[in-house]
Amino acid sequence: MYGELFAVAARSWRNRTGVALRLDVLPKRATVPLVVGLPVVLVGAAFTFRVTGWPGWLIAASLTGAAVSVGFHLAFVRLHRKTA
To answer: Which of 35, 45, 56, 84 is least surrounded by Cβ atoms within 10 Å, i.e. has the fewest?
Structure first.
């Protein structure tokens, strides 16, 4: 599902800007932990919520995911502006 959402976002970005969303232009030290870590955080929070019943895990995972997504987007936009 995470990959499908990324494909939809990449297609939308390409249609809106005319530029393909390419992860190979971003530093691997940033993209690899994001691609691996974010799904683990989100799924782990859901599992932990199921075990403990405390909704704080879901809230924390949602805030973390939003912050990482916004940060990643800003970094990509900054790199895109440097090349344009």
So the answer is: 84
